[in-house]
Every structure is written in structure tokens, then in C-alpha cells.
Design brief:
With 458 residues, this protein is mainly alpha-helical. Helix content is 54%, strand content 8%. The protein has helices spanning 14-18, 27-31, 46-49, 59-71, 93-105, 108-118, 121-142, 149-157, 165-182, 190-201, 206-209, 239-251, 259-273, 280-294, 305-310, 313-325, 331-369, 377-387, 396-403, 407-419, and strands at residues 75-80, 85-89, 222-223, 229-231, 423-428, 431-436, 441-444, 453-456.
Length: 458
């Protein structure tokens, strides 16, 4: 990555240079660059723009024109680092689109409406819990956890104790996301940041992570895959004071700043400060979610951003580096995060639409068959979740948790489905695991009562 050339800010005599040789004969080519975005409405860094400028143009002069256009629209966010430097951003078309989608799709009111349309809320809760697991697992894998998604989901769903450091990382992330939700009404504080870290990493490798303790030395750096240092955090001296300042900024009301932009800025600020010896990325992402929860965007409990970040770790890292290289212009980081959030929210909405369509098909089929009346509300929810493959295995423990019922009621619902030949069960270890039969039977009348038979559902 090639860093942008240093400029002298607003005092740089850009326009004076343009009217002098050898630049004046290309004046119109230069002036066409006096805009913050490229011709495709992208906010590109110097390294990408310099390959798109016409041959023969002075790269430093081109960059100065772009910077002037951007500076005219920049909005200051907050001071970062030591010595302090203002982080700023520009609201791009992509960011505006993302804000609109987030406002429509992820508020608590929107989530309640979705739940009401699904019918039995238990089925929707199974879908949502699956998405919650996705975020905890992907966030861990993004940090290097060497465990498969299938094994991690099995551990979370069966409440199995983690057996390896990688599984402990997944479990820690899962608990940290729950902790962020529980603490959504609290103001941000240095203590809350430390507590998030403690919940997320305790028990993994306490000597390496030092749960809840801020770094005291300047030997913590961020390296790329080849071992090159790409980020050296601000000094440990003054770290707590800077986190206190960050907390005051987060707790302050900003009517002119959308909560999503503020949450992304908090994500960046925590990663930039790197307050812990390890686990900083997980805490930064958890704080992003915490702030969205705090501002009543409850659907973010089920929007798995890390699932997409895990698949684009290089771009994720570069969005940090471009921001730091260009005088803390957070637009690069905000742009990348918005592109990921937009896709994640759309994936959440697609999962809901598929779930709704399956619910409607399910109810039509069961009503027509007469089988529907034989199922309790809990059994309908479990059967629907199994048929739509929201969940493939069930235990009394996870049914108790997801449906909010007693253990005895969970066992009764599951065994009832076995009795109806809808589910079958197997003993795995010390517990019974229930799952859908290959083709569950539906009772249909054929002629007289004596000729009733069981036919397979589609």
C-alpha cells in the first residue's frame, strides 16, 4: 500500500501551481479532479486513485485537489491519539443508503413487527438464535480461532463446556455479546470496557490476555501476515485518560450524528487505541453492537457482521490503515463497515422472508391435512424450525432456553413429536438428541375411518 504524499493543508498553493507551466495546459484535467468522490461515487484512498489519474498529471497536485474538495465537506468527530488529532468523516452515498436500510430494518419496532408476522414467536427465536451464534463464532474465527462453524454451533446449542482454547474463545465471544446486551442501558465507562474484555477472554489464556487489564507498556503493535508492523498504538501513558475522554464523547448526545456512524467510530477508536494486550478486535466489535443496542436497534442482536468481516480480513485491515495514513480520515473505515453492514442487514432480512414464506406454507399444509390440530404451540414451533432447517438438532435443555418453558414442558413437547412419528431421538453421551425424521407423517383421510393411513408429507 502506497501512502499519500504529505501536503501543507490549506496553505498549499494548489491553484497557483495550476496556472503555471507545466500544468496550465492540463488545467481542465486537473480541475475535473476537484471532487471528493470518483466518477463511480467511491471514496478511494490515494493508493487506488493514483492509478486512475490521466497519464502525465502530477500525482501530488492531483491528490491536493482531491484533499481540498474533501476538506470542504469533512465533519469532525472526535480527537484521537497522543498527540491528539481530529478524526473526521464525509457522509458518502453508500453511507446514506446504509443508514436508510438500518433505520427501516433493524429497529426494535421492526423486529417486533417481524415476530408478529411469523406467528408463533418461538420459531422466530430459533432463527434469531442461529444468527446470534454466527456472530460469536465468526468474530472468534476472525481473531484466529481454529474451530469449524459446525463444531462451535454444536458446543453452543448443547451447552457443552469448551475443550480447547479456540472453543473457549468462541464461548467467550458468545458471552460477551450477551453481556453487551445486558449492559445496553449503562453509560460507557472505562470499567465497562474492562468488564467486556474480562467476560470475553477470561479462561482462554489468562497470562496472554490478562482479562480486564489495560496494557502498561508500549510493546503492543499490530502486524500484517508477513510480520510487518502496520500500526503502533498511542502510548500506554495516558491510555486510561483517553478512554475516559472517549467514554464522555460516546455518552454525549449528538443529534446531528446517526447512531450507526457513532457506533462505527467507537469500533475504530477502540481498535486504534488497542488498550489490551490481546482481544482488542473482539471488544471493539462488541462495543459497536452495545451502542446499537443502546440506541434501540435491537435487530443487531441477529445481524452477523463478523461473518462478512471474516471473509474479507485484508479489506478490514486496510480500512484501518487507509484511515491512519490519511490524517485520521475515518471515511475509509466507515465506508467499508457500511458496505459490510448493508450486506449483513440484507442477509438478516432475506432470512426473515424465507422464514415467513416457510411459515405460511407450513400452516397451509398442516391445516389442509388435519395434522395441525394434533400439535401443541411448542410442537408447531419445533417442527417448523426443523423443517426450515433453522435448527437440525434439539435437546430438552436448548428447547427450554429458546422457548422459555420449563424443562419438563420441553421434554414433553419433544417426546410428543416422537410419539407422532415426526421426530426421532438418539442417546448422545448423557443426553437425548431429537431431530426430524426424513419424511414426517401426516394423517390424511382416505375413504372411511377404518381406511385411514399415514402418508408422507412433501
Amino acid at each position: 500500500m502506497k501512502n499519500p504524499p504529505p501536503l501543507k493543508g490549506r496553505t498549499d498553493p494548489v491553484f497557483e501551481l495550476l496556472v503555471r507551466p507545466p500544468h496550465k495546459h492540463r488545467l481542465m484535467d486537473y480541475l475535473a479532479l476537484l471532487k471528493p468522490l470518483d466518477d463511480r461515487n467511491r471514496y478511494l484512498p490515494f493508493d487506488a486513485l493514483r492509478r486512475r489519474w490521466a497519464a502525465g498529471l502530477d500525482a501530488r497536485l492531483c491528490w491536493a485537489l482531491v484533499k481540498k474538495a474533501r476538506a470542504a465537506q469533512h465533519i469532525n468527530l472526535l480527537p484521537l491519539g497522543e498527540p491528539a488529532q481530529w478524526g473526521k468523516y464525509l457522509l458518502t452515498p453508500l453511507a446514506q443508503k446504509t443508514l436508510c436500510v438500518v433505520d427501516r430494518q433493524t429497529t426494535s419496532a421492526s423486529l417486533e413487527y417481524r415476530a408478529s408476522r411469523i406467528g408463533e414467536r418461538e420459531h422466530f427465536s430459533c432463527l434469531l438464535n442461529d444468527l446470534t451464534e454466527d456472530e460469536a463464532i465468526a468474530s472468534s474465527q476472525l481473531e484466529g480461532a481454529a474451530t469449524t462453524t459446525r463444531v462451535a454451533k454444536d458446543m453452543l446449542r448443547h451447552r457443552r463446556q469448551p475443550r480447547t482454547p479456540d472453543e473457549r474463545m468462541v464461548m467467550g465471544n458468545y458471552r460477551m455479546m450477551g453481556f453487551a446486551w445486558e449492559k445496553r442501558h449503562e453509560p460507557l465507562s472505562v470499567g465497562l470496557i474492562a468488564a467486556l474484555h474480562r467476560v470475553g477472554v477470561e479462561g482462554i489464556d489468562d497470562a496472554q490476555y490478562q482479562p480486564g487489564r489495560f496494557r502498561r507498556d508500549d510493546d503492543v503493535v499490530v502486524q500484517d501476515g508477513e510480520g510487518n508492523t502496520v500500526h503502533r498504538p498511542p502510548p500506554a501513558a495516558g491510555l486510561v485518560a483517553r478512554l475516559e475522554a472517549l467514554s464522555r464523547w460516546v455518552n454525549q448526545r449528538h443529534d446531528d450524528l446517526h447512531p450507526l456512524i457513532k457506533a462505527i467510530t467507537l469500533h475504530f477508536a477502540l481498535g486504534y487505541e488497542h488498550p489490551f494486550r490481546d482481544g482488542n478486535g473482539r471488544v471493539a466489535r462488541a462495543l459497536f453492537y452495545w451502542f446499537m443496542f443502546k440506541n434501540d436497534f435491537s435487530a443487531f442482536r441477529y445481524v452477523a457482521i463478523s461473518l462478512l468481516l471474516r471473509n474479507a480480513p485484508v479489506q478490514y485491515g486496510r480500512s484501518y490503515l487507509h484511515t491512519e495514513a490519511d490524517e485520521l480520515d475515518l471515511t475509509y473505515f466507515i465506508e467499508f463497515q457500511c458496505s459490510v453492514i448493508l450486506r449483513a442487514v440484507n442477509a438478516f432480512a432475506d432470512a426473515y422472508r424465507k422464514s415467513l414464506a416457510h411459515t405460511e406454507d407450513f400452516e397451509r399444509g398442516l391445516l389442509a391435512s388435519g395434522f395441525f390440530e394434533r400439535l401443541s404451540d411448542r410442537q408447531r414451533a419445533l417442527y417448523r424450525a426443523a423443517k426450515s432447517e433453522v435448527a437440525k438438532e434439539f435437546t430438552a435443555g436448548n428447547v427450554q432456553e429458546h422457548l422459555g418453558c420449563s424443562y419438563r414442558a420441553a421434554v414433553s413437547a419433544l417426546n410428543g413429536l416422537v410419539g407422532l412419528q415426526v421426530f426421532e431421538k438418539r442417546k448422545m453421551g448423557r443426553e437425548w438428541v431429537f431431530f426430524l425424521r426424513a419424511a414426517p407423517p401426516v394423517e390424511t383421510k382416505k375413504g372411511s375411518d377404518a381406511s385411514r393411513s399415514l402418508v408422507l408429507s412433501a
